[in-house]
Amino acid sequence: MSKFLVLVIFFLVGCVSLDNSPPKYIYEAWERPNSKHLDIKQDMKSCGYKNTLHANDINNETIYFAEKCMRDKGYVLDTSSYRPNNCYGQNSPYLCNRLWGGQKPQLIGVKPRVN
């Protein structure tokens, strides 16, 4: 019985810690098979990104072309790590604003926009 309880507690602690984890850096959110972080960062810079960690210095007009450029290079954007409880603050990635409508995230009743 005690092994079962330990297993349940371990599982719950693991789930809670995942919910509070910060979102991925932007270069980690762009995925392409067999691509290394250095390659992704270089491709991002060639597509117009200046800041490959948060890209929170990029404007809306530029981001459209930067994202299209990355998709044209075969990348897919994984936004699964961006949630309302970890998308806040001045250094939050630009994806937080794009996904959550440019408003301060709320903990309930908020869903990302589908582009």
List the helices and strands and how they pair.
Blueprint: H1 2-19, H2 26-29, E1 30-31, H3 37-46, H4 60-72, E2 76-77, H5 94-99
Antiparallel strand pairs: 1-2
Structure summarized in a few sentences:
By secondary structure, the chain is mostly helical.
- The side-by-side strand order for the widest beta sheet comes to 1-2
β-strand amount: under 5%
Calculate the terminal CA-CA distance, rounded to whole Å. 49 Å
Question: What's the count of strands?
Answer: 2
Summed over residues and divided by their number, the pLDDT gives a mean of 77
DSSP helical segment count: 5
Please trace the helix and strand order, writing H or E for each element.
HHEHHEH
- Major β-sheet annotation: 2 strands, antiparallel
Q: How many separate domains make up the residues?
A: 1
Structural summary, described in words:
- The chain is mainly alpha-helical and 115 residues long.
- The chain has one domain.
- It is built from 5 helices and 2 strands; from the N terminus they run ααβααβα.
- A two-stranded antiparallel sheet has the order 1-2.
- The chain is globular, with a radius of gyration of 17 Å.
Which short descriptors sum up this protein?
115 residues; mainly alpha; two-stranded antiparallel ribbon; 44% helix
